[in-house]
Amino acid sequence: MSNILDNSVSLTRRGFLGAAGRTTLSAAAIGILAGASSLPAVAAKHEGQDISILNVALGLEHEGIAAYQLGAESGLLQKAVLDVAVLFQSQHKQHRDALIATIQKLGGKPVEARSLADYAKALKADTLKNQTDILVLAARLELGATNAYLGVIPAFKDPQLAKVSGRLAADETMHWTFLNNALGRGLPQSGLSFGA
Fold first, then answer.
1. How buried is 3 (Cβ within 10 angstroms: 0-12 exposed, 13-18 middle, 19+ buried)?
2. Which CA distances in Å does 139 have to 20, 110, 161, 184, 194?
């Protein structure tokens, strides 16, 4: 994984899972993400690692926002699908804003979003030829985000952090479910389909 201090973040779901497996977020980060207005009295000794993990998550949210922007600007989405894409993008922006606020309250520097052109290249936007292509890309990214957020839950010692990660995973799962349905794909036939 890249050093966060130089703002070169690995924007992969595996990178997020790997970072979380090596560290846990502090009680301070948990309190902020959960909406607490003040930091808990006991600050974790690994705040730098906490900031790194939050920055990787922020990088993933930047990627999701850009993917929906590329889809919206493509002119390939029908009005009803475009409306939902804009809604999902707004929810990713809310995730982004919460992560930025948390990183700043912990004294860190939030990783910056890359240019839309950089995301277009990384996501191979030039291969998106129709609405289905865009939905497939979005569903793949949402499933990856779901699995990433669920995958880090066992690494957390504080149950509040597990709750926050679960809430983020729930949003991503909702997005995936809608996109999967829009693609005409059925629901998973077995239980325990996410987080593996």
1. exposed
2. 23, 26, 25, 12, 13
- CATH class (in words) of the domain with range 4-182: mainly alpha
Closest CA to 52 of 112, 114, 119, 109: 109
The residues spanned by each domain of the chain are: 4-182
Closest CA to 61 of 13, 108, 19: 13
Burial class (CB in 10 A: 0-12, 13-18, 19+), 2: middle
Cβ within 8 Å of residue 92, ≥6 positions away: 61, 64, 65, 68
Q: pLDDT averaged over consecutive 10-residue blocks of the chain (196 residues)? A: 30 44 40 44 50 77 96 95 95 91 83 96 95 96 88 63 78 93 87 80
